[in-house]
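Can't paste images in this forum, so I'm doing it all in text. The chain is below; anyone willing to post the predicted structure tokens underneath?
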Amino acid sequence: MRQLAIYGKGGIGKSIIASHISFALANNMGLKVMHVGCDPKHDSTRLLLKGYMCTTILDTLRKHDFDVDSVKREDIVFETPLSLACGKIFCAESGGPDPGVGCGGRGVSESIETLVKMNVFEELELDAVVYDLLGDVVCGGFSMPIRQGYAEETYLVSSGELEALFAASNICKAIARFASRSGSRLCGIIGNLRDLENEEKLLKQFADNIGSQITGFIPYSERIKECSGKGVTLFQLYPDSSECEAFKTLADNIWNNHTFSTPKGINFEELHAWWLKEINR
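Text version of the structure:
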């Protein structure tokens, strides 16, 4: 079983990309995939559940006074109702505290520990687990999949915008910090394009600068926004689109990737100076 962590700046499109990766791994490769949303908003699995916001692991634990032994798998794991050519997709959301109360990262830690203690991954005989993780601030909880070695393969979602690149650079520092202890490695950059001039070239140079590679590009698309609003993936509304082909290629690149690295983070001053030089060329 391979465990993949998808990180990136808040609002960069991680959840949309992660859910399409999960769908393509299952539908196009016949894999058994679990998609784990690791954000208090608990909306990562929404497109895989036809717009349904599922019950979170943390809310379920609260109802059971945090007695994991009294929780059933069907209380926290939900199979996608979407039609698949082959494969299977199971969904779970960590959840978290109400806005402004408590630590969201702690909810991620508690939820992953619950899945592990309940032997969910083994019982479902999964081929892959996809963790969709908040990446603005990689605190203890949000870094758990890479810190504890649950996810040895990490991908960063970024546009060519400075803020997104800075968040990606900070996540690189966390990966490097835990690499020797957990074995976590950076496997590549997923470019979620925002229609900037020379954006692909900029992202390729950034990948080189941190010691990584480009895994794939997702084009800027109004169709993606439309599908998100309707609560379904592109594969339901536009299965023959170029956007779907981009997601299929991305999933294939991820599954066949064997090039991992310990990345180098870049401080903001260096990153900003480089970015200004590149966009002014």
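Residues 2-279 form a domain with the Rossmann fold fold (CATH 3.40.50.300). The radius of gyration is 18 Å.
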